[in-house]
Design a protein that fits this description.
This protein is α/β, with parallel strands linked by helices. The protein has one domain: P-loop containing nucleotide triphosphate hydrolases (Rossmann fold, 3-Layer(aba) Sandwich), CATH 3.40.50.300. 54% of the residues lie in helices and 12% in strands. The chain is built from 12 helices and 7 strands. The strands form 2 sheets. A 4-stranded parallel beta sheet has the order 2-1-3-6, sandwiched between helices. Helix 6 packs across helix 7 and helix 8 crosses helix 9.
C-alpha cells in the first residue's frame, strides 16, 4: 500500500470553510437589512406633547403594545432631579458632577423609553416642560434652540401634539379623577391607575372653571412653542383617538417609519371613565354659566 501524499493528508476539509463563508454572508445580509430598516426610520425618538386627561395613557399603552415604537411614559413628569433619580433607581452619590448626573438620567430614560425597539418614546406634560428644558439647556448650552437640544440628547425627534378639543369635558374628567382617586381603567373594567382609595366626588363649578382655563393655557403654550421652534407636529385629538384608536396608532407608526398595518391587531387597552355624573356636571355647569 502506497503512503498517502503529505498534501492530501494536510489539506483541510472544505466543510468548515463553506460554513464560515455562509455565516459571514448571513451576517452581512443582516447588517444590510438592519441598515435598510434604520434608513426607513426618519426618527430615533418621539415626544407626545400633551396635558392631563387628553388620552395620553391610552396612546402610550397602544404604542407600547405595538412593540416597534418604544415604551413611552412620563419619564420626566415631576420637575425635580431627585424625583428623576428615584424613578430610574439612580443615586446622586454615583455621579461626580451635575452634568454626569443628567447624562446618566437621560441615558436611563432612553433605554427605558425604547422598550424592545430602536425608537424612544417620551410623554411630556406642559406643566413640567420648562424644567425639563432647563436641564437640557444646561447640558447643551451651545445649541441654538430647544429642538436642537432635544435632538442632541434623543436624536431626530417626531413631535406629537395630543390635545382634547372639548375643554369642559377634559376639566370635568380631571376634577373627578382628583376627587375619586381613579385615573385610568383597563378595558376589562379593572383599575389601571388608582392613586387613592375610592371616595365620593362632588360638583365644584369654581374648580371646573379654573381647570378649563389651565388646560386652555396649556394648549396655547404648546402651540406657541411649536411656532417658536418652527415645528409642525403630528396632531392627534382625544376625540379621534377615542373613537378610532387603531387608526390613529397606524397613522403614528407610519409617520415613524415602521409598519402601521400592525396597529389593527393591537387591542384598545383602556376604558372610558366618563359616566352619567360627567353628563350631569356638564349640564349643570353650562346652565350655571348662562
Amino acid at each position: 500500500m502506497e503512503p498517502m501524499a503529505l498534501s492530501a493528508m494536510s489539506a483541510p476539509s472544505p466543510e468548515p470553510l463553506i460554513l464560515l463563508q455562509l455565516q459571514n454572508s448571513a451576517i452581512r445580509n443582516w447588517q444590510h437589512s438592519r441598515r435598510d430598516i434604520m434608513s426607513n426610520q426618519p426618527y430615533q425618538s418621539y415626544f407626545i406633547c400633551t396635558s392631563p386627561r387628553s388620552g395620553s395613557t391610552m396612546l402610550c399603552e397602544l404604542l407600547a403594545g405595538a412593540k416597534v415604537a418604544g415604551k413611552p411614559d412620563s419619564h420626566f413628569h415631576e420637575p425635580s432631579i431627585d424625583a428623576w433619580l428615584d424613578y430610574y433607581d439612580l443615586e446622586a452619590a454615583d455621579f461626580a458632577t451635575r452634568r454626569d448626573m443628567l447624562n446618566g438620567i437621560f441615558r436611563a430614560a432612553k433605554m427605558l423609553g425604547k422598550g424592545q425597539s430602536d425608537i424612544c418614546g417620551v410623554r411630556l406634560q406642559r406643566g413640567s416642560f420648562a424644567f425639563f428644558m432647563e436641564q437640557l439647556k444646561f447640558l447643551y448650552s451651545d445649541c441654538a434652540s430647544d429642538v436642537e437640544r432635544i435632538e442632541a440628547a434623543f436624536g431626530p425627534t417626531l413631535f406629537i401634539f395630543l390635545s382634547r378639543k372639548d375643554k369642559l369635558d377634559q376639566a370635568i374628567s380631571y376634577i373627578r379623577a382628583e376627587q375619586t382617586g381613579l385615573w385610568h381603567r383597563r378595558a376589562d373594567g379593572s383599575d389601571l391607575e388608582r392613586l387613592e382609595p375610592q371616595r365620593d366626588d362632588g360638583y365644584d363649578p369654581d374648580a371646573i372653571r379654573s381647570q378649563v382655563a389651565e388646560f386652555t393655557a396649556f394648549d396655547a403654550s404648546w402651540r406657541s412653542w411649536f411656532e417658536e421652534q418652527s415645528v409642525s407636529p403630528l396632531e392627534v385629538s382625544y376625540e379621534d383617538l377615542s373613537s378610532a384608536p387603531q387608526k390613529q396608532l397606524a397613522r403614528i407608526l407610519d409617520t415613524l417609519g415602521v409598519d402601521g398595518s400592525i396597529a389593527h391587531d393591537i387591542p384598545t387597552p383602556t376604558a372610558k371613565l366618563a359616566d352619567g355624573i360627567n353628563r350631569l356636571w356638564r349640564d349643570r355647569f353650562e346652565l350655571d354659566s348662562k
